[in-house]
Amino acid sequence: MLRHRALGLVCAAAIAAGGCRGGPGAGTEPSDSRVRGLADTYLAAYFERFPEQITYFGVPGRPQNGLTDNSLAALRAWEAREDRFLASLKQIDPATIGAAPLRATYAIARQTLEAAVAKRVCHDELWNVSEMTGWQVNFGYLVTIQPVGADAARAAALERWRRLPAWIDTEIANHREGIKLGYTAPKQNVRTVIEQVRTLASSTLKDSPFASPGQRDKTPEFQKAFDALVTIGSR
Fold first, then answer.
1. What was the pLDDT predicted at 27?
2. Which structural domain, as residue segments, surrounds residue 235?
3. pLDDT for 44-86, tens place per residue?
4. 113, burial (CB in 10 Å: exposed 0-12, middle 13-18, buried 19+)
5. Domain final residue, candidates 63, 90, 122
6. Do both 178 and 220 map to the same domain?
């Protein structure tokens, strides 16, 4: 889900930044600059909120050292920001947007925000146990594309993946809150995820996807430090 939303935002920003500058009449309408500014601000906020997407999409010039703050408090704060972004977009009459690409930007951003607001009723954060899109799958892939090969990249990799145990603890707390409120994943999903996590925990360093950065970057100090993260995390 996050990847699809990010893709829409990336497309919107690309259109706003690349497709509308320098053409005849570009930026002459007040609404055009408002849409462009909102799209740019929204995209920056999105990547700040969901730093994993920076790595998934290979966005240059942005830090790749974070994981999403999955606490319920952080989620509510982000939802409030979404509400403000959507309110600002609704104040713009799309008929007053001069540049056609910016009209597309407006439509993509508004649709993305309205869909996010509508989906809140599902409370996914309280029962997010999935054998297809759970952390054990998504992060198991993310770690294999984590940039390495330079001092800054190695430091970012260590910083990001040191956060994983706390991230998992928060996810457990969210699930416990979900149980209290009557939100649980289907039994078969839970059983499958438990087996997936057991397999990860019992994997050797050689076979664990989470050891990928240390396997791809042979710098001894980094390899030792990253291997230690994986070993400690699997206990």
1. 46
2. 127-235
3. 999 999 999 999 999 999 999 999 999 999 999 999 999 999 9
4. buried
5. 122
6. yes
Cα torsion through 12, 18, 19, 22, rounded to 10: 140
Are the beta carbons of 136 and 191 closer than 8 angstroms? no
Q: Please state, in angstroms and rounded to a whole number, the distance separating the CA atoms of residues 78 and 103.
A: 25
Long-range CB contact pairs, 164-172, < 8 A, 24+? 164/67, 164/139, 164/233, 165/233, 167/67, 167/68, 167/70, 167/135, 168/135, 170/70, 170/71, 171/70, 171/128, 171/135
Residues 5 and 116 in one domain: yes
H helix intervals, the chain: 2-18, 30-49, 52-56, 72-90, 100-119, 135-142, 151-162, 164-181, 187-202, 212-216, 220-233
Indicate whether 112 and 132 sit together in one domain: no
Structural contact between residues 31 and 25, judged by C-beta atoms closer than 8 angstroms? no
pLDDT digits over 205-220, tens only? 999 999 999 999 989 9
Pair (134, 231) in one structural domain = yes
> Is residue 22 domain-shared with residue 105, that is, in the same domain?
yes
Among 73, 103, 122, the domain-final residue is 122
> Are 114 and 185 in the same domain?
no
* Tens digits of residue pLDDT in 99-108: 999 999 999 9
The tally of domains found in the chain comes to 2
Q: In 120-150, which ranges are continuous DSSP H helix?
A: 135-142
Locate 110 and state its tokens. Answer: 């508004």
Task: Give the predicted TM-score (pTM) of the model.
Answer: 0.87
Within 10 Å of residue 191's Cβ, how many Cβ atoms? 12
d(CA 200, CA 114): 37
Pair (2, 99) in one structural domain: yes
